[in-house]
Amino acid sequence: MTVTETASEFEIKYRYKTNRSSPVKWIFSHAINQWYFVLLAVTGAVGNAALASVPAIYIGRVYSEITKPLPNKDLILRFALIVLFSQVIRGILQFARNYGFELTAQRIERNVREELYISLIGKSMTFHALQSIGDLMARATNDVREVNFLFSPGLNMVFGSLNFLFLPLIVGPQYHPALIITPALFIIAYFISIRHYLRTLSPITSKVRQTFGVMNSRLSEAIDGIETVKSAAQEKNEIDRYESNSIAYRDASIKQGLIEARFIPLLLLAIAMGSGLLHAMLLFNLGQISLGSVISYFSTLSLLGFPTYTSIFSYSQISLGIASAKRLLETMNTENNLDENKNGYSQEIQGKIIFNNVSFAYNNSEPFIKNISFTAEPGQTIAVVGQTGSGKTTLAFLVNRTYDVSSGEILVDGVNLKNWNLDALRSQISIIEQDIFLFSRSVADNIAFGKPSATHAEIEKAAKAAQAHEFIQSLKEGYQTVIGERGVTLSGGQRQRLALARAFLTDPKILILDDSTSAIDSETEDKIQKAIFNAAKGRTTFIITHRLSQIRWADLILVIHKGRIVAAGKHEELLKSSMSYQQIFRE
User: Do domains 2-332 and 353-586 have the same CATH topology?
Assistant: First the structure.
């Protein structure tokens, strides 16, 4: 497996390029690169089907021989051995078919899953901000699995049974030319009905996958927000909402079942079997074929049952797989405007940041950030204050290109952000948010997330600088204690101190603190303030906060109101000149 980067996102390559222009082409581009297993499977399918006709043919010959006045026992034994040997070989070929298709299915599932995962990791935050986690999880798990089922048992059953359709077409004329009529008419009617079946089924299977995604999304939201649900006593309402989504999924699945229940080829099979037997008996009565030939022909005709019965399930599985592939492609093909710029500027950041008439809008809506202009010199501390929803966090996220500006430009060391190599830029910027995300790993692993090669001494030094060492030592296994998902086993203050330690360890050139001390108690705050003050030395620091103790020593304070800078200056100046700044501290 190799990973390459394009102008828009990471792409995965397993020594081949996938075609994402349509679900069928995409699936084929994966399958063609498993050609050796596909060839094994198809060879097994063709051979297995061909040998399936041997017992049907020889049972008639045995009947003709044993009904003679003096049957040839050696010939009957020879017929029996031919049947036995052919079925042993058939069993081996059937194993090759199943093995080939199953291995192809599993390898393609692995490749598709990793292709999707790397695509998701490469998407911008603008993309992720608009996506439902539950629906993405449904696509990454259940839809990927449906692509697996498309090959096995879906295509496995189709290829394994399709050849059975043509055996009566080949065997029948050997007894009498007219015996080609029934299988020929059946095959024509079969493919016409299958075409109609798939056209009818396709929108329903797409609805099944879509309603499953919605249901999964509702479940994910309810579980993720379970604290809010319980605190507001909304369990009953959430159950009702989930039930309505579940009913929609059930109804779509039932509709799929109703279409499968009206599977026309089953009726065609019954007509073909009756008509074929009647035709053969008429020819027998006319003395044109023997009774043994009637038995062999009818036994061969009965092979049509296998592709007919398996079609109900296999074509439904293929339709579901294609619907799932379509959903996966919708996700992977969603445009990502964030340019990675792999060949861009990648020097060490000095820290001068210029916002030049910057505006930003979410998803082509009204601008949320409007005509922002200011300059932060290297090593300066910039405090950003304003009411909730004024755009403070969005402004900070423009610095590391979590979002890209809609108009204007941001310069870092005189270079437009879009001209920077994204990895080089982000590796020198650290953001600590109010809502700290911690992984379900050890404390040491969480601190070293941005620098996996860090030694234990470096991790401990960073923890001490963030005033986290003491509480870490009190944990059951110290730095090797595995914390719960999202850090739920820790208090808010502990999570934020770990985030500070993570930032200190990476030694960023630009540090952004987004209300990162909001959950720290007053006893710890003084120590944290000292740590932040020391950390801010020598690097450009943005502090988004309402805490006066942090704002006082900022070199520049920006007052944001409805996405605009309404005042800028030092603390003492703004207290005298800005009503908006005064109002913040009165609230």
Answer: no
